[in-house]
Design the sequence.
């Protein structure tokens, strides 16, 4: 059976980021969380850098918005505005009047899109809780999407190959009963086979209650 | 826009920003109603005296006098003080208290160590391999270290659901009381119904909280021991690792049923159920669906046999119901337990208390008399109202019958032709559906608030009410503008129509008649066709001049119609546009027919030219022996028609593009109508205000066990506990606009298909998209089969 995974927009930016790292958390033998993230480890300099870049992004986005605003309505040249802010506004206004709408509008739209939506780290996780179910979460930038599948409806989990653009990738998928198609685990990061096997083994071991002692599922 | 027309909109918006807040039940309590009225008045005053402008001026004034700078300085200094002194002191204090408490607990645990090890040995010997114990724990318990009794549901031996902690009661006595029914004597609705919802027959005592000698006890799933502490939100479950049982503590916040919050495994459906299925069916989608079904079948064959789902796995839906009911269950339990305890210490009232009671009683008596007078009148008023509704329903039924009437079954009904008739149809159907929805929602009051099945109905009902109200408000603003400026609007419309559809067309045709863009067309044919079209345009322009004096009156009428909602003038304008551009439509039909004929003649003559012909019976091309004169004439005609084709093509292209432009304009108007009739406004507002009312599923979050356990400081044991936080996922925005996306996809699939483009190229008539697909979105909030007047009567009478 050929199953094609759609190309995600993250694939372009993926070239510039590091390969994702797997983290496993098992508070007890019945619960396990596999987190795959391309963010650097949370050390202090990295955290500071991340916060700094996101602040810079926000400032740049605000600047772009201000530019558009001053173009739309030039500020009044009176002393009613604070003397500290007025020269800044005047500079903005001078700059924006020198530009034309047809250049400014598309450029600022592209800039805002890049600043607010592109980049950032992707974190995807798979939580397996025995007797409850499987949860797949994808965190990119601002948005978090999660999908919970009760154990009752999980009919199988498997590793499969699929076409993605011009490459063939392995992926881990959950087969959901009464639903067409598969639910792909780690759909944007798509780790290699070694990682997938590790996750698959861990998830299978955790998902179902061992019926007999020593039937191979027991740890 | 005039300021007067802005006021109602503005205050109305303010009013409705609070409206979802104030309407958790259908009947507003007086306090909330008062609040709504106050907000309305506040909105009106704000608009009337331009308070916003004055506030902005005040802000400017404050800025000039350096108020902001000083305030910021003060804030910075205070927060610095807070961070430097208060937080460290608070941390130190909390650490000290926790140290003291753990020391005392250690002392007590060392006492019972002997018994504990005995128990461990016993469990190990018996080889108890029970694996997993699940505890559902609500997060809103007060953080105290007082001892208490855990009461809740026992879904199975290893699956318990905590409903409440009862302080100051004896666990054995409460266990006896829970099984008897007289504990639930004081309840607003039937208590058995609540038990039914939860899928259990009785509450049980599950264990103890903060029992001093708990660690001496042996661990058993039938009676658990937990600790709570001031420094932690989470409970600590007493479970020695040697017991061989892993524990999952699933924490949840109780959804508040009065605020209509609830958890759901499936996303809430904003469209009606039978409609949702109806949307799926389309002819060219069925093939795709069959292919998918086959794939799913293969998928099923691929899986190895999976183990049967255990009882715990199957009970998820029941647990979600228990979570939804847990708030009301707790309230019921609290009230009755306090009655049980309070029965003993009731004493007589003192003199001063009697005086106060007498004084309040007087006022209460007066209010009661007033209420009684209203209650006498009440049935009369409601009966009149019911009769009014049924009469109105009968009128609506006749109008709907007229709108749906077809001369012959295959012909189009009135509502399929005209946008106005369709708008009427939608509004009337909504009016017919509202009483039924209202009666359904009224029935909700007779049951527990935890019953969540009617919540989507509630959202749908208020969404459609709000959309209509919005529509009317916008319509009033639009209508007052149109009525006041009827002449200007009429003149504008007339001049634009004249400039584009008459003068523009004329200019275009005369340009085509003599060498357009240096292209050498056939002069004679071009002038013939052009003259033909010009005559018709002239005749049309004459007719328009005779209509022109009446146009302001028509516009005036449209303006008046907009008091019934802004969608009405838009629909009317759409119809007016199709009437006033009738000539372009006929030109398009005529030129398309000519072009198509010529093309088909050219194709058959081409076959003749090759010495072949089309066999209609076999639907193929056969060889054929033509005579010489046949061949000669055919070839000459073929050449002639080939040379004449560009001239006809040019005319066809002109009219086809004009027709496309009009269709685009009408599509824009239709989109506007769809937004006015079917925007998920109420749902969007709820999503912003309280996303728990729009559940899109559940999700789990793994907590850090080590950090939680460290708060209790039992570092000598490494517990096999996982803390999982159960949360509700709000409905994603994409799901709210799902139908819009579906509609867009369908239109794109229809009009950008190769078949339609081929039709357009060859001048055949383009097959229109099926109306059911185009307008299914607007009808998606209405049932497919509306209830008749008698059914409505029956429901209204029964509803009382």
Sequence:
């Amino acid at each position: 059976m050929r199953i094609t995974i759609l190309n995600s927009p993250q694939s372009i930016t993926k070239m510039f980021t590091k390969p994702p790292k797997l983290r496993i958390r098992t508070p007890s033998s019945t619960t396990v969380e596999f987190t795959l993230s391309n963010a650097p480890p949370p050390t202090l300099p990295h955290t500071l850098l991340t916060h700094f870049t996101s602040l810079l992004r926000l400032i740049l986005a605000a600047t772009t918005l201000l530019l558009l605003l001053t173009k739309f309505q030039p500020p009044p040249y009176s002393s009613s505005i604070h003397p500290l802010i007025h020269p800044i506004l005047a500079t903005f206004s001078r700059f924006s009047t020198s530009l034309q709408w047809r250049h400014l509008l598309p450029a600022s739209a592209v800039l805002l899109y890049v600043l607010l939506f592109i980049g950032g780290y992707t974190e995807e996780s798979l939580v397996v809780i025995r007797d409850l179910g499987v949860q797949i979460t994808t965190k990119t930038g601002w948005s978090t999407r999660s999908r919970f599948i009760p154990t009752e409806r999980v009919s199988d989990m498997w590793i499969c190959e699929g076409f993605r653009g011009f490459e063939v990738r392995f992926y881990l998928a959950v087969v959901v009963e009464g639903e067409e198609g598969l639910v792909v685990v780690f759909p944007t990061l798509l780790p290699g086979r070694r990682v997938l096997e590790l996750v698959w083994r861990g998830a299978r071991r955790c998902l179902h209650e061992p019926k007999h002692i020593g039937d191979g599922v027991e740890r | 826009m005039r300021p007067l027309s802005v006021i109602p909109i503005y205050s109305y918006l303010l009013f409705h920003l609070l409206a979802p807040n104030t309407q958790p039940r259908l009947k507003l309590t007086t306090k909330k109603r008062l609040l709504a009225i106050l907000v309305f008045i506040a909105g009106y005053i704000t608009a009337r005296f331009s308070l916003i402008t004055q506030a902005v001026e005040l802000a400017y004034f404050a800025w000039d006098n350096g108020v902001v700078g000083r305030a910021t300085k003060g804030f910075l200094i205070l927060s610095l003080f807070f961070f430097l002194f208060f937080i460290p002191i608070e941390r130190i204090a909390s650490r000290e208290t926790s140290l003291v408490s753990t020391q005392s607990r250690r002392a007590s645990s060392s006492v019972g160590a002997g018994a504990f090890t005995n128990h461990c040995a016993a469990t190990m010997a018996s080889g108890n391999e029970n694996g997993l114990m699940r505890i559902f724990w609500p997060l809103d318990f007060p953080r105290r270290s007082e001892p208490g009794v855990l009461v809740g549901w026992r879904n199975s031996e290893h699956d318990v659901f905590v409903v409440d902690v009862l302080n100051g009661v004896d666990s054995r006595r409460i266990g006896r009381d829970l099984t008897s029914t007289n504990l639930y004597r004081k309840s607003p609705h039937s208590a058995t119904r609540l038990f039914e919802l939860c899928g259990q027959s009785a509450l049980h005592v599950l264990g103890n909280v903060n029992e001093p000698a708990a660690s001496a006890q042996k661990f058993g799933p039938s009676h658990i021991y937990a600790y709570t502490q001031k420094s932690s939100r989470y409970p600590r479950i007493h479970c020695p690792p040697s017991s061989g049982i892993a524990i999952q503590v699933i924490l949840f916040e109780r959804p508040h049923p009065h605020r209509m919050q609830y958890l759901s495994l499936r996303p809430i459906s904003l469209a009606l159920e039978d409609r949702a299925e109806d949307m799926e069916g389309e002819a060219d989608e069925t093939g795709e669906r069959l292919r998918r079904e086959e794939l799913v079948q293969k998928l099923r064959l691929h899986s190895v046999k999976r183990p049967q789902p255990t009882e715990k796995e199957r009970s998820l839906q029941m647990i979600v119901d228990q979570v939804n009911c847990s708030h009301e269950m707790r309230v019921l339990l609290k009230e009755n337990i306090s009655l049980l305890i309070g029965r003993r210490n009731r004493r007589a009232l003192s003199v001063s208390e009697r005086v106060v009671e007498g004084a309040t009683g007087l006022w209460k008596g007066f209010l009661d008399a007033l209420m009684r007078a209203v209650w006498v009148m009440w049935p009369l008023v409601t009966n009149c109202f019911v009769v009014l509704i049924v009469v109105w329903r009968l009128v609506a039924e006749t109008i709907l019958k007229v709108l749906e009437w077809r001369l012959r079954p295959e012909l189009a009904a009135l509502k399929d032709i005209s946008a106005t008739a369709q708008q009427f149809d939608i509004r009337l159907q909504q009016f017919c559906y509202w009483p039924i929805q209202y009666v359904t929602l009224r029935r909700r009051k007779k049951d527990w608030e935890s019953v969540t099945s009617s919540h989507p109905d509630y959202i749908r009902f208020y969404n459609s009410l709000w959309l209509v109200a919005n529509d009317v408000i916008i319509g009033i603003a639009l209508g007052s503008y149109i009525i006041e400026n009827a002449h200007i609007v009429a003149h504008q419309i007339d001049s634009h129509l004249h400039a584009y559809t008459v003068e523009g067309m004329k200019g275009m045709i005369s340009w085509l008649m003599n060498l357009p863009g240096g292209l050498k067309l056939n002069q004679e044919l071009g002038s013939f066709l052009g003259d033909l079209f010009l005559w018709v345009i002239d005749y049309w322009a004459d007719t328009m001049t005779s209509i022109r004096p009446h146009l302001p009156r028509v516009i005036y009428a449209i303006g008046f119609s907009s008091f019934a909602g802004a969608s009405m003038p838009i629909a009317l304008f759409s119809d007016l546009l199709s009437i006033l551009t009738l000539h372009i439509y006929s030109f398009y039909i005529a030129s398309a027919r000519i072009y198509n004929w010529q093309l088909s003649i050219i194709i058959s003559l081409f076959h003749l030219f090759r010495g072949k012909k089309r066999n209609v019976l076999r639907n193929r091309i056969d060889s054929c022996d033509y005579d010489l004169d046949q061949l000669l004439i055919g070839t000459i005609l073929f050449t002639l028609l080939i040379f004449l084709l560009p001239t006809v093509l040019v005319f066809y292209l002109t009219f086809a593009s004009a027709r496309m432009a009009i269709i685009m304009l009408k599509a824009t108007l239709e989109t506007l109508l769809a937004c006015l009739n079917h925007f998920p406004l109420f749902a969007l507002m709820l999503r912003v205000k309280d996303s728990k009312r729009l559940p899109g599923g559940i999700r789990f979050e793994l907590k850090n066990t080590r950090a939680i356990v460290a708060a209790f400081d039992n570092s000598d044991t490494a517990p096999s506990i996982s803390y999982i936080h159960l949360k509700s996922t709000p409905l994603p925005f994409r799901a709210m606009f799902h139908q819009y996306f579906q509609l867009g996809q369908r239109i794109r699939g229809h009009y950008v298909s190769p078949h339609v483009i081929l039709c357009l190229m060859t001048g055949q008539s383009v097959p229109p998209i099926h109306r059911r697909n185009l307008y299914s979105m607007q009808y998606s909030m209405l049932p497919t089969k509306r209830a008749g007047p008698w059914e409505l009567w029956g429901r209204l009478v029964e509803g009382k």
